[in-house]
């Protein structure tokens, strides 16, 4: 994920104690840029499976158990760390930013929405009734979500 000339890279797994890290690497350079282009590093913060989302300025991490971390891509500061309801089921799909709404699908088929800009404010949760592993995707002014048996299409 790239924002503000910084590649934000999660390393490790957030479902294992003290294993996850998050790096901010400046673009450019050649060869080994480990020491010259590492802008920042955050310990004990990362993701398990999902990719990060960006609004062009901040990185949004959907953590294994539903935590949402908003990280300033330029300096690595954490703007907030909130979350969706925890359950025994994990979040394997990547979050989607659509307008001012963050969409996250949990493995058990529950799809959550929240406002994410400036603060995290949960909005809705909807049970699609089947397992979801694929990430929500934008499509023709709406959202596609692939469940275990069905392809769902939502739009205003």
Give your account of this protein's structure.
The chain has one helix spanning 34-37; strands spanning 2-3, 6-11, 21-26, 38-43, 53-54, 58-62, 67-72, 78-83, 96-98, 101-105, 110-115, 121-127, 137-139, 142-146, 151-154. It has 156 residues and is mainly beta. It has a 4-stranded antiparallel beta sheet with strand order 1-2-3-4. A hairpin with a 5-residue loop joins strand 11 and strand 12 (121-127). The longest helix has 4 residues, at 34-37. The model has no long low-confidence stretch (mean pLDDT 94).
List keywords for this structure.
Methylamine Dehydrogenase, Chain H; four-stranded antiparallel beta sheet; mainly beta; 156 residues
What's the CATH superfamily, by name? Answer: YVTN repeat-like/Quinoprotein amine dehydrogenase
Order of helical and strand elements: EEEHEEEEEEEEEEEE
General form: globular
Q: Strand order across the biggest sheet?
A: 1-2-3-4
Helix content: under 10%
Q: Average pLDDT across residues?
A: 94
State the end-to-end distance. Answer: 28 Å
What structural class do the secondary elements suggest? mainly beta
Content of β-strand:
over 45%
- Radius of gyration of CA atoms, rounded to a whole number: 16 Å
CATH topology: Methylamine Dehydrogenase, Chain H
């Amino acid at each position: 994920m790239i924002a503000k000339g910084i590649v934000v890279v999660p390393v490790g797994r957030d479902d294992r104690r003290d294993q996850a890290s998050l790096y901010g690497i400046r673009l450019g350079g050649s060869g080994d840029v480990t020491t010259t282009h590492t802008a920042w590093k955050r310990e004990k913060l990362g993701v398990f499976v999902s990719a990060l989302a960006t609004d062009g300025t901040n990185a949004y991490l959907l953590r294994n158990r539903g935590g949402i971390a908003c990280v300033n891509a330029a300096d690595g500061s954490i703007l907030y760390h909130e979350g969706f309801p925890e359950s025994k089921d994990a979040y394997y799909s990547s979050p989607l930013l659509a307008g001012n709404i963050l969409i996250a699908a949990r493995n058990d088929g529950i799809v959550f929405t929240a406002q994410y800009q400036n603060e995290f404010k949960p909005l809705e949760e909807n049970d699609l009734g089947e397992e979801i592993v694929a990430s929500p995707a934008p499509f023709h002014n709406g959202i596609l979500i692939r469940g275990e048996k069905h392809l769902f299409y939502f739009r205003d």
